[in-house]
């Protein structure tokens, strides 16, 4: 379908870790026309390869002038739940992947030694990372910057994944992610420590996009959707969010937005460095529900969160694993234990939330902030995961409906209607967990 | 016979791309042109990258943030943002560095790269203190902000209004007010009333020069309370507002400023004489010699006093005194206000009094664009704003004992970084530079 040609590179990258080889395929425009993109296209691509493969993909709007077009979706068969899961990655990971020259990246097989996959200007390379095992995430990133210079976005795993902890979570650089369903474990099983993107190419998109984007932003501003910016207003809307917000009093700094997002919902928090005088350390608060869980267990939640991020550990699971009112040192020890093999996982530790079907919640990574409930959440999040829009933003911007987003794909009303129908069908497929039909 | 060959004249870069000197209008002497530039507010920026997106659509006709002329760098720990973008400097270093003279500064103040001549060597990137000409990692071309020819797209599309296009604040009234006050003071102290600076009495109000009073005490060996108290007025003024006398009132300072306007090019002050402590030595010498000689020794050659005594309507017109003012005003040919910087004992007395000052001038580290601007250092008549510090990216500390409170820096700073503060205040909340 020619509609998607300005929104995609038309390339699929394949990295075979077993044979340490990589190649590119042309994207089938017909298949894209059927599945639109994002999670739906990922699911179809995964059905064409081995079940232990990992597919990273972008939506048609990823990287475009559509608001919050930051999404990269990681699709895989979860080793924890044994069904397909789609994990959203935000900040700049989606656009960087798209601008690196491939729309989808299929990672097959497993390497003998730890390695990283890098995509630059459409070239896929596999780098060995012999000394990376067990390294905390910041150290691993330092090592990557030294060995694979020039990358602009990264998805990495930490010692928790190396130790096969069921609480391991993949991380966007050192900021964590919404992965609560074992994507990090899947990467660890492949001996894949990092996926790196360097988006130095670009895509034309459409000429009317900047004006359309500005109009959408003005519409959202007028509706009051963009009134409450930052991490705190989002946390307050969660269950027990009021208590979680209290812990952050006086510690919040600047807000951070994902790619082209008019409503930043991430905020930096500062931590006093012990023995460093007035010098301050800090971290980006990204995982709203993870923070809510962790901060309900400890006043020192910021220290614990930082340790979780260093270890590549899901902070929400860590929050569940902690007993009430532990001293900081004991809590850190408990977290270290969770991050290593031997820790067992209870059914109640699996991600779930009230008001949303548990299976559906886990289907989309188990970490997407539940700002709405029931069908509204499912419908909006699933559409965002297909189109390449941030699933948190789409809940915050309540006034923004699907047709507003589809206007970025087409200016023809009939075509928008047809696209809406396609997306409905794909959402149904995703929710039922069916393998979509189609052929290359 | 073969005719002797004349060597063919070689074309030089100067022939092909002659440097066009900056045109200065007459009005620029009074109110320099204020060109547009983009002001970045790091406190508002969320790092969404919209500026990079929209900029790249203009540069390469596609969304490719890596090909933009603006880059937002984020400190990943505390989220502090820094935008790398051209500041369209008054004296662009990129322009000087370009070997093909592809970089031009237009009459509108916009620094542009002429693609016809650019060979993408990247020397401009290295020369620019902001590293603002950005090399496209894909095509290896150099992209640099041209303000979208006056209507920057990044400013229009920034969702947080962190970028604004501005011509700087229109705060040039301080300069006009200072010239007016200086002219009035000159008229009052020199032309209309004779000897008022050294000693002035109107009814019960008595005012006198503090340096003269010190010499008087030393030469007479007695402390006359009335005389001493009359000198206090200027000292109290200094404690309250700093050395405003030197910057706003001193008639000899006004003469020096006029000479400076006539002779903008300076010969340079000898290095071995470049000590601001010299004026304190002269002050000590003046007091000491007054004690030895039994009269106010320095007052006989004081340019302020002689100006008041010899050049007014009722002037004494002593030929020797007449020569002192032009002789000392000639120091202005060497360096701006070099008399005030290195030699003036009156300034030294006020400098000591200003140790107790209530006010200070600060240059806020957060707003100051430092190396791209340096306008404060350029306009400071006493040269106490360290341009090298600014070039190194630091906000300079201003030694207030040397500052004559002319407020030229406050007036000129386009970013509102130079400000007057109480001495106990920080430059801006959270800063410690002052």
What does this structure look like?
The complex is a heterodimer of chains A (440) and B (434). Chain A has a domain at 232-349. The mean pLDDT of chain A is 89. In chain A, the strands form 3 sheets. A 6-stranded mixed sheet of chain A has the order 2-1-6-3-4-5, sandwiched between helices. A 5-stranded mixed sheet of chain A has the order 8-7-11-9-10. Chain A has a 3-stranded antiparallel sheet with strand order 12-13-14. By secondary structure, chain A is an alpha+beta fold. Helix content of chain A is 36%, strand content 18%. With 434 residues, chain B is an alpha+beta fold. Chain B folds into 3 domains: 34-166, Alpha-Beta Plaits (2-Layer Sandwich), CATH 3.30.70; 173-355, no CATH class; 359-422, Alpha-Beta Plaits (2-Layer Sandwich), CATH 3.30.70. Helix content of chain B is 37%, strand content 10%. Chain B has 18 helices and 12 strands. Chain B has helices spanning 13-16, 50-60, 93-97, 123-127, 153-157, 173-192, 210-220, 225-241, 244-249, 251-262, 278-293, 303-310, 319-329, 338-343, 345-353, 375-379, 387-391, 408-412, and strands spanning 37-40, 71-74, 81-84, 103-105, 111-113, 134-135, 142-143, 163-166, 199-202, 205-208, 359-363, 418-422. In chain B, strands 1-8 form a two-stranded antiparallel sheet. A two-stranded antiparallel ribbon of chain B has the order 2-3. Chain B has a two-stranded antiparallel sheet with strand order 4-5. In chain B, a hairpin with a 6-residue loop joins strand 2 (71-74) and strand 3. In chain B, helix 7 (210-220) runs antiparallel to helix 8 and helix 11 (278-293) crosses helix 15 (345-353). The longest helix of chain B is centred in the middle third of the chain and has 20 residues, at 173-192. The termini of chain B are far apart. Chain A binds chain B through residues 63-65, 92, 95, 99, 121, 150, 152, 173-175, 198-205, 210, 213-214, 217, 253-262, 264, 267-268, 270, 280-284, and chain B through 43, 46-50, 53-54, 56-57, 60-67, 74, 76-81, 136-138, 153, 156-157, 159.
């Amino acid at each position: 379908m020619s509609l998607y040609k300005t929104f995609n590179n038309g390339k699929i990258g394949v990295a075979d870790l077993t044979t340490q080889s990589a190649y590119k395929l042309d994207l089938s425009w017909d298949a894209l026309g059927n599945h639109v993109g994002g999670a739906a296209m990922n699911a179809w691509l995964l059905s064409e390869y081995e079940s232990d493969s990992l597919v990273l993909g972008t939506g048609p709007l990823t990287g475009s002038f559509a608001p919050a077009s930051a999404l990269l979706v990681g699709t895989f068969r979860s080793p924890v739940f044994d069904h397909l899961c789609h994990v959203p990655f935000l900040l700049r990971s989606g656009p960087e992947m798209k601008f690196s020259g491939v729309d989808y990246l299929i990672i097959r097989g497993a390497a003998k030694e730890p390695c990283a996959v890098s995509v630059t200007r459409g070239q896929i390379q596999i780098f060995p990372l012999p000394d990376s095992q067990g390294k905390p995430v910041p150290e691993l990133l330092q090592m990557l910057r030294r060995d694979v210079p020039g990358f602009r976005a990264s998805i990495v795993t930490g010692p928790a994944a190396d130790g096969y902890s069921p609480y391991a979570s993949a991380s966007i650089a050192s900021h964590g992610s919404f992965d609560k369903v074992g994507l990090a474990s899947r990467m660890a099983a492949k001996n894949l420590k990092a996926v790196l993107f360097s988006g130095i190419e670009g895509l034309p998109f459409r000429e009317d996009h900047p004006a359309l984007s500005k109009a959408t932003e003005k519409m959202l501003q007028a509706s009051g959707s963009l009134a409450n910016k930052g991490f705190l207003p989002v946390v307050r809307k969660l269950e027990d969010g009021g208590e979680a917000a209290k812990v952050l009093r006086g510690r919040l700094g600047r807000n951070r937005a994902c790619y082209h997002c008019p409503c930043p919902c991430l905020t930096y928090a500062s931590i006093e460095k012990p023995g460093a005088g007035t010098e301050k350390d800090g971290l980006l608060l990204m995982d709203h529900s993870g923070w809510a869980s962790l901060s309900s267990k400890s006043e020192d939640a910021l220290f614990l969160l930082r340790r979780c991020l260093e270890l590549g550990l899901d902070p929400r699971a860590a929050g569940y694993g902690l007993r009430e009112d532990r001293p900081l040192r004991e809590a850190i020890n408990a977290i270290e234990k969770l991050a290593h093999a031997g820790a067992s996982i209870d059914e109640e530790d699996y991600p779930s939330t009230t008001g949303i079907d548990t299976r559906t919640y886990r289907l989309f990574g188990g970490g997407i902030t539940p700002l709405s409930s029931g069908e509204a959440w499912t419908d909006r999040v699933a559409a965002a995961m297909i189109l390449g829009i941030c699933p948190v933003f789409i809940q915050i911007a309540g006034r923004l409906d699907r047709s507003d987003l589809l206007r970025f794909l087409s200016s023809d009303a009939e075509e928008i209607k047809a696209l809406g129908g396609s997306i409905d069908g794909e959402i149904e497929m995703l929710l039922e967990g069916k393998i979509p039909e189609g052929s290359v | 016979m073969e005719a002797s060959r004349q060597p063919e004249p070689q074309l030089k870069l100067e022939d092909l791309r002659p440097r066009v000197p900056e045109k200065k209008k007459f009005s620029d002497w009074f109110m320099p042109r204020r060109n547009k530039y983009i002001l970045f507010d790091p406190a508002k920026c969320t790092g969404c990258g919209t500026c990079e997106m929209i900029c790249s659509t203009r540069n390469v006709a596609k969304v490719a943030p890596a090909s933009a002329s603006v880059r937002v760098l984020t400190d990943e720990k505390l989220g502090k943002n820094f935008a790398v973008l051209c500041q369209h400097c008054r004296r662009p270093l990129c322009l000087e560095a370009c070997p093909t003279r592809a970089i031009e500064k237009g009459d509108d103040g916009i620094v542009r790269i002429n693609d016809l001549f650019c060979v993408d060597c990247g020397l401009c990137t290295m020369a620019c203190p902001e590293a603002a000409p950005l090399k496209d990692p894909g095509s290896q071309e150099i992209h640099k902000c041209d303000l979208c020819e006056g209507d920057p797209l990044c400013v229009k599309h920034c969702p947080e209004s962190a970028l604004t296009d501005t011509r700087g604040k229109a705060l040039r009234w301080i300069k006009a007010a200072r010239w007016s006050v200086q002219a009035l003071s000159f008229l009052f102290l020199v032309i209309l009333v004779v000897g008022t600076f050294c000693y002035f009495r109107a009814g019960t109000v008595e005012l006198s020069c503090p340096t003269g009073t010190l010499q008087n005490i030393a030469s007479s060996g007695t402390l006359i309370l009335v005389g001493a108290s009359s000198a206090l007025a200027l000292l109290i003024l200094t404690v309250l507002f700093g050395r405003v006398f030197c910057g706003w009132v001193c008639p000899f300072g006004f003469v020096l400023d006029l000479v400076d306007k006539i002779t903008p090019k300076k010969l340079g002050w000898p290095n071995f004489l470049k000590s601001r402590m010299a004026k304190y030595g002269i002050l000590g010498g003046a007091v000491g010699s007054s004690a030895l000689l039994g009269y106010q020794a320095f007052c006989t050659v004081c340019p302020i006093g002689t100006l008041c005594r010899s050049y007014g309507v009722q002037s004494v017109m002593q030929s020797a005194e007449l020569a002192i003012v032009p002789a000392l005003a000639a120091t202005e040919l060497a360096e701006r206000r070099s008399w005030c910087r290195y030699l003036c004992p009156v300034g030294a007395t006020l400098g000591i009094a200003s140790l107790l000052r209530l006010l200070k001038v600060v240059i806020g580290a957060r707003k100051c664009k430092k190396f791209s601007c340096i306008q404060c250092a350029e306009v400071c008549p006493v040269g106490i704003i360290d341009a090298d510090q600014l070039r190194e990216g630091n906000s300079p500390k201003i030694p207030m004992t040397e500052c004559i409170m002319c407020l030229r820096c406050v007036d000129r700073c386009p970013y509102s970084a130079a400000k007057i503060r109480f001495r106990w205040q920080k430059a801006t909340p959270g800063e410690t530079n002052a």
